[in-house]
Amino acid sequence: MDLYLLRHGQAMFGSPDYDQLSDLGQRQALCLGEELADWNLSDATLVSGSLKRQRQTLEGVCRGGGFTPTERQDPGFNELEIMELIPLYWPAACERLGLSLTPKEASQDMRYFLPLMSEALRVWIADHGQREGESFSQFRHRVLEAIAEHHQGNKPTLAVTSGGVISLVAGEALGAQASHMAELIHQVNNCSITHLRYARGQWQLQAFNINGHLRRQDMLTWR
């Protein structure tokens, strides 16, 4: 069975309420829907995580692609709690990389923010639940449970989710080490498409981060 993981559109990074689509993010969602309308997926099961930006993206996909709107939500597709993890793991990431920057300072320059964010994720992945908040093993378990129900049936699934979920599932399908997720997460563009197929008892990666529909419209973003 085919599973299409769709990253949400651009959210309001740096604003008091990150969890909503920007104007560009809304246009990206429409563009994604228009692209998927040509993929012969009219009978697909539609689902999103419960986060606002994910639900808004699915609404835009339905409008752009002519899909029947759905209210189906599965929190298993929600993003990892990055805003909770940063205070816990950022200091260790700075120490490992020999830097002394706050998350706000680093966010002004991707040369520092991306390596520090990746390192913070590696520390989290290796932590084995020793600190408060959702552990990596708990995150992995809920994501794999969320996609498990889509093993069977005759319909493909379109699931609007986030970069952390997509990078985890793609890495699992490739048999990569868990820490590889810390790099893959920075490759997933807003409103990109990652395609997996369940065959011979496992998910197999068919395509990762398809984004040509966004490039053609000059709407390619990562955050």
Low-confidence stretches: none
> Numbering strands along the chain, what is their spatial order in the largest sheet?
2-3-1-4-5
The main β sheet shows up as: 5 strands, mixed
Distance between the termini: 30 Å
The count of DSSP E runs of length 2 or more, i.e. the number of strands, is 5
What is the structural class? alpha/beta
Structure description:
This protein is α/β, with parallel strands linked by helices and 223 residues long. It is 44% helix and 14% strand. The chain contains nine helices and five strands; from the N terminus they run E-H-E-H-H-H-H-H-E-H-H-E-E-H. The mean pLDDT is 92.
Structure characteristics:
223 residues, alpha/beta, five-stranded mixed beta sheet, 9 helices, 5 strands, globular
In brief:
The protein is an alpha/beta fold and 223 residues long. The chain contains 9 helices and 5 strands, in the order βαβαααααβααββα.
Secondary-structure blueprint:
Blueprint: E1 2-7, H1 23-36, E2 45-48, H2 52-65, H3 82-97, H4 103-106, H5 110-126, H6 136-148, E3 157-161, H7 163-174, H8 181-184, E4 193-199, E5 202-210, H9 212-216
Parallel strand pairs: 1-3, 2-3
Antiparallel strand pairs: 1-4, 4-5
Helix pairs in contact: 1-2, 3-5
